[in-house]
Amino acid sequence: MLEGESDFRIVGEVGDGLQGLSEVKRLHPDVLLLDLAMPGLNGLEVLRQVTKYCPKTRVVVLSMHASEAYVLEALRNGAAAYVLKGSDGSEVLEAMRAVLDGRRYLSPPLSQLAMQVYLEKAEKAASHCYDALTTREREVLQLSAEGYSNSNIAARLFISRRTVETHRANLFYKLGLRTQTDLVRYALRRGIIWLDE
User: What is the value of pTM for the model shown?
Assistant: First the structure.
Protein backbone atom coordinates (compact mmCIF):
# COMPACT_ATOMS: atom_id res chain seq x y z
CA MET A 1 0.00 0.00 0.00
CA LEU A 2 2.72 2.49 0.99
CA GLU A 3 4.91 1.57 -1.97
CA GLY A 4 2.15 2.82 -4.27
CA GLU A 5 2.25 6.30 -2.69
CA SER A 6 4.69 8.78 -4.24
CA ASP A 7 5.21 10.67 -0.96
CA PHE A 8 6.37 7.59 1.00
CA ARG A 9 9.56 5.57 0.79
CA ILE A 10 9.90 2.37 2.83
CA VAL A 11 13.36 2.16 4.36
CA GLY A 12 12.91 -0.99 6.44
CA GLU A 13 10.57 -3.75 7.53
CA VAL A 14 10.95 -6.28 10.36
CA GLY A 15 8.72 -8.65 12.34
CA ASP A 16 10.56 -8.67 15.66
CA GLY A 17 10.66 -5.91 18.28
CA LEU A 18 14.38 -6.13 18.99
CA GLN A 19 15.22 -6.00 15.28
CA GLY A 20 12.74 -3.17 14.81
CA LEU A 21 14.32 -1.07 17.53
CA SER A 22 17.77 -1.69 16.10
CA GLU A 23 16.61 -0.64 12.61
CA VAL A 24 14.93 2.52 13.89
CA LYS A 25 18.11 3.52 15.73
CA ARG A 26 20.11 2.85 12.56
CA LEU A 27 17.78 4.45 10.00
CA HIS A 28 16.01 7.23 12.00
CA PRO A 29 12.83 7.13 9.85
CA ASP A 30 10.38 10.03 9.84
CA VAL A 31 7.50 7.64 10.65
CA LEU A 32 7.37 4.20 12.22
CA LEU A 33 4.27 2.03 11.70
CA LEU A 34 4.36 -0.17 14.80
CA ASP A 35 2.32 -3.24 15.69
CA LEU A 36 1.87 -3.68 19.45
CA ALA A 37 1.93 -7.50 19.29
CA MET A 38 5.48 -8.46 18.36
CA PRO A 39 7.87 -11.14 19.57
CA GLY A 40 11.26 -10.32 21.07
CA LEU A 41 10.22 -6.93 22.41
CA ASN A 42 6.59 -5.84 22.50
CA GLY A 43 5.42 -2.77 20.64
CA LEU A 44 4.91 -0.67 23.78
CA GLU A 45 8.52 -1.18 24.83
CA VAL A 46 9.73 -0.45 21.29
CA LEU A 47 7.61 2.71 21.40
CA ARG A 48 9.11 3.72 24.76
CA GLN A 49 12.64 3.28 23.49
CA VAL A 50 12.05 4.92 20.11
CA THR A 51 10.62 7.96 21.91
CA LYS A 52 13.74 8.06 24.08
CA TYR A 53 16.44 7.38 21.48
CA CYS A 54 14.85 8.69 18.26
CA PRO A 55 12.51 11.48 19.37
CA LYS A 56 12.09 12.85 15.84
CA THR A 57 10.60 9.57 14.62
CA ARG A 58 6.81 9.86 14.78
CA VAL A 59 5.10 6.58 15.72
CA VAL A 60 1.81 5.30 14.34
CA VAL A 61 0.61 2.38 16.46
CA LEU A 62 -1.37 -0.36 14.73
CA SER A 63 -3.35 -2.51 17.15
CA MET A 64 -6.29 -4.87 17.40
CA HIS A 65 -7.01 -3.46 20.89
CA ALA A 66 -9.60 -0.67 21.09
CA SER A 67 -9.71 -0.55 24.89
CA GLU A 68 -8.92 2.67 26.71
CA ALA A 69 -6.05 1.03 28.62
CA TYR A 70 -4.11 0.19 25.46
CA VAL A 71 -4.73 3.57 23.87
CA LEU A 72 -3.68 5.39 27.05
CA GLU A 73 -0.52 3.34 27.40
CA ALA A 74 0.43 3.97 23.78
CA LEU A 75 -0.21 7.72 24.01
CA ARG A 76 1.55 7.97 27.35
CA ASN A 77 4.61 6.37 25.84
CA GLY A 78 4.81 8.66 22.84
CA ALA A 79 2.50 7.40 20.09
CA ALA A 80 1.36 10.15 17.75
CA ALA A 81 -1.41 8.01 16.24
CA TYR A 82 -3.37 4.89 17.12
CA VAL A 83 -4.99 2.96 14.27
CA LEU A 84 -7.11 -0.16 14.75
CA LYS A 85 -6.29 -3.25 12.73
CA GLY A 86 -9.06 -3.88 10.27
CA SER A 87 -9.11 -0.23 9.24
CA ASP A 88 -8.80 0.26 5.52
CA GLY A 89 -5.53 1.36 3.97
CA SER A 90 -6.66 4.94 3.47
CA GLU A 91 -6.96 5.34 7.25
CA VAL A 92 -3.37 4.19 7.80
CA LEU A 93 -2.23 6.66 5.14
CA GLU A 94 -4.30 9.41 6.75
CA ALA A 95 -2.73 8.69 10.15
CA MET A 96 0.79 8.68 8.73
CA ARG A 97 0.24 11.95 6.87
CA ALA A 98 -1.31 13.52 9.99
CA VAL A 99 1.68 12.70 12.19
CA LEU A 100 4.11 13.92 9.54
CA ASP A 101 2.11 17.15 9.59
CA GLY A 102 2.61 17.42 13.36
CA ARG A 103 -0.92 16.34 14.27
CA ARG A 104 -2.26 13.38 16.23
CA TYR A 105 -4.64 10.76 14.95
CA LEU A 106 -7.02 8.29 16.60
CA SER A 107 -8.80 5.64 14.62
CA PRO A 108 -12.60 5.59 14.68
CA PRO A 109 -14.40 4.54 16.86
CA LEU A 110 -11.82 6.40 18.93
CA SER A 111 -13.04 9.92 18.28
CA GLN A 112 -10.95 13.05 17.92
CA LEU A 113 -12.90 14.48 20.83
CA ALA A 114 -11.64 11.60 22.95
CA MET A 115 -8.04 12.47 22.03
CA GLN A 116 -7.83 15.27 24.57
CA VAL A 117 -9.42 13.11 27.26
CA TYR A 118 -6.94 10.33 26.52
CA LEU A 119 -4.00 12.75 26.59
CA GLU A 120 -5.09 14.27 29.91
CA LYS A 121 -5.54 10.82 31.43
CA ALA A 122 -2.20 9.71 30.04
CA GLU A 123 -0.43 12.68 31.61
CA LYS A 124 -2.13 12.10 34.96
CA ALA A 125 -1.72 8.32 34.91
CA ALA A 126 -0.25 7.17 38.18
CA SER A 127 3.23 5.78 38.05
CA HIS A 128 3.20 2.00 38.06
CA CYS A 129 5.80 -0.42 39.36
CA TYR A 130 6.52 -1.24 35.72
CA ASP A 131 7.83 2.30 35.26
CA ALA A 132 10.49 1.56 37.89
CA LEU A 133 11.98 -1.20 35.73
CA THR A 134 15.07 -0.43 33.70
CA THR A 135 15.03 -0.89 29.94
CA ARG A 136 17.05 -4.10 30.27
CA GLU A 137 14.71 -5.43 32.98
CA ARG A 138 11.76 -4.84 30.63
CA GLU A 139 13.52 -6.73 27.86
CA VAL A 140 14.27 -9.64 30.22
CA LEU A 141 10.65 -9.54 31.44
CA GLN A 142 9.26 -9.92 27.94
CA LEU A 143 11.66 -12.61 26.82
CA SER A 144 11.09 -14.54 30.08
CA ALA A 145 7.33 -14.27 29.61
CA GLU A 146 7.72 -15.58 26.06
CA GLY A 147 9.38 -18.68 27.54
CA TYR A 148 13.05 -18.06 26.75
CA SER A 149 15.57 -19.59 29.16
CA ASN A 150 18.14 -17.40 30.91
CA SER A 151 20.81 -18.75 28.52
CA ASN A 152 18.70 -17.91 25.46
CA ILE A 153 17.93 -14.42 26.81
CA ALA A 154 21.64 -13.85 27.44
CA ALA A 155 22.49 -14.84 23.86
CA ARG A 156 19.68 -12.72 22.43
CA LEU A 157 20.62 -9.58 24.40
CA PHE A 158 24.40 -10.14 24.21
CA ILE A 159 24.83 -10.21 27.98
CA SER A 160 25.96 -12.90 30.41
CA ARG A 161 23.61 -15.44 31.92
CA ARG A 162 24.48 -14.11 35.37
CA THR A 163 23.44 -10.59 34.29
CA VAL A 164 20.12 -11.99 33.07
CA GLU A 165 19.62 -13.69 36.45
CA THR A 166 20.32 -10.38 38.23
CA HIS A 167 17.85 -8.47 36.03
CA ARG A 168 15.27 -11.21 36.56
CA ALA A 169 15.69 -11.09 40.33
CA ASN A 170 15.39 -7.29 40.28
CA LEU A 171 12.24 -7.26 38.18
CA PHE A 172 10.64 -9.99 40.33
CA TYR A 173 11.36 -7.88 43.41
CA LYS A 174 10.12 -4.59 41.89
CA LEU A 175 6.91 -6.16 40.57
CA GLY A 176 6.25 -8.32 43.63
CA LEU A 177 6.34 -11.55 41.61
CA ARG A 178 7.31 -14.95 43.00
CA THR A 179 6.98 -17.51 40.20
CA GLN A 180 7.28 -17.80 36.43
CA THR A 181 3.49 -18.19 36.34
CA ASP A 182 3.14 -14.83 38.14
CA LEU A 183 5.45 -13.29 35.55
CA VAL A 184 3.43 -14.65 32.62
CA ARG A 185 0.14 -13.51 34.16
CA TYR A 186 1.59 -10.05 34.77
CA ALA A 187 2.87 -9.85 31.19
CA LEU A 188 -0.56 -10.83 29.83
CA ARG A 189 -2.35 -8.24 32.01
CA ARG A 190 0.05 -5.49 30.95
CA GLY A 191 -0.24 -6.37 27.26
CA ILE A 192 3.46 -7.27 27.08
CA ILE A 193 2.56 -10.63 25.53
CA TRP A 194 -0.67 -11.86 23.97
CA LEU A 195 -2.39 -15.18 23.70
CA ASP A 196 -2.83 -16.35 20.12
CA GLU A 197 -6.49 -16.28 19.14
Answer: 0.65
